Amino acid sequence: MHPMLNTAIKAARRAGTIINRASLDPDRLTVARKGPRDYVTEVDRAAEEAVVEVLRTAYPDHAVLGEEFGLQGPDQAEFQWIIDPLDGTTNFIHGLPNYAVSIALTQRGLVTQAVVYDPSRNELFTASRGGGTFLNDRRMRVSGRVRYHEALLGAHWPSPVDADHASASRFRNMAEGSVGVRRLGSTVLELAYVATGRLDGFCGVGLKPWDLAAGSLLVLEAGGLVADFDGEQGWMDSGNVLAGTPKVFTQMMTALQPKA
């Protein structure tokens, strides 16, 4: 295992310990609102501090981009860690155990290492570029699903009240063609589930780099495809992403196109 991946695993498990401890008494959480339906707790901040401490102690020349504290370290660093200390904060606040720690390492903008850790289930998803995707040390692949009407999708897209009619109809077309859509409230877990065959595809809108960096490598190293809505590689910048098994991905892309 790559030493940088080992460091990321150590950091993710340390954050997971903080999260699990706090989950035992959720009523004591201090919750602040960052925006509409966007919350942060002291657990998010403590988990991010723990992750950053591990990463920057091991690699002081690396930069770290985190959801809660922004960019720390040199602006033009060759290596940058992209982290989400608790993806699924709303689930966590409500005691719904669908949340995870996400850590990715980029080298000159290319994601090379990825860790997604689900502390409530003790599931550790890892990937190294060129080395495959693993769940708790077991090699994983995307599902073999080929028929779109049998595909189960994950989603992070606007509800009708958040989007104009035309945009909403695009996602409705995609949803109606599949067997079902699940909105789990944690993008990093949904991408991990695509990588391990629990979901066959994922569609996300308006996401951030820390939502996508680690999960994208998991999917790619498990044999899946990742692209933006135009089939290009601009999803990290636009925040709009499709991911899935090769056959399902192609059909998702077709379903997303506006009908004439």
Q: What is the residue-averaged pLDDT?
A: 89
CATH architectural category of the largest domain: 2-Layer Sandwich
Q: Give Rg in angstroms.
A: 18 Å
- Overall structural class, as computed from helix and strand content, comes to alpha+beta
Fold-level CATH name of the largest domain: Fructose-1,6-Bisphosphatase, Chain A, domain 1
CATH top level class name of the largest domain: Alpha Beta
Cα distance, first to last residue? 50 Å
What sort of overall outline do the alpha carbons produce when their principal axes are compared? globular
- Major sheet size, sense and barrel closure: 8 strands, mixed
Q: Level of helix content? A: 25-40%
Q: CATH homologous superfamily of the largest domain?
A: Fructose-1,6-Bisphosphatase, subunit A, domain 1
Low-confidence stretches: 35-39
Number of helical stretches of at least 4 residues: 8
> What is the tally of beta strands?
15
Number of domains: 2
Proportion of beta-strand residues: 25-35%
What is the topology, as strand order, of the major beta sheet?
Answer: 4-3-5-6-7-8-9-10
The run of helices and strands is HEEHEEEHEEEEEEHEHEHEHEH
Please, could you describe this protein's structure?
There is one protein chain. By secondary structure, this protein is of the alpha+beta class. It folds into 2 domains: 3-139, Fructose-1,6-Bisphosphatase, subunit A, domain 1 (Fructose-1,6-Bisphosphatase, Chain A, domain 1); 148-256, 3-Layer(aba) Sandwich (D-Maltodextrin-Binding Protein, domain 2). Helices cover 36% and strands 28% of the residues. An 8-stranded mixed sheet has the order 4-3-5-6-7-8-9-10, sandwiched between helices. The longest helix has 21 residues, at 3-23. The chain is globular and about 50 Å long. Mean pLDDT is 89; it is low at 35-39. Its EC number is 3.1.3.25. It catalyses: a myo-inositol phosphate + H2O = myo-inositol + phosphate. Its cofactor is Mg(2+). Keywords: Hydrolase, Magnesium, Metal-binding.
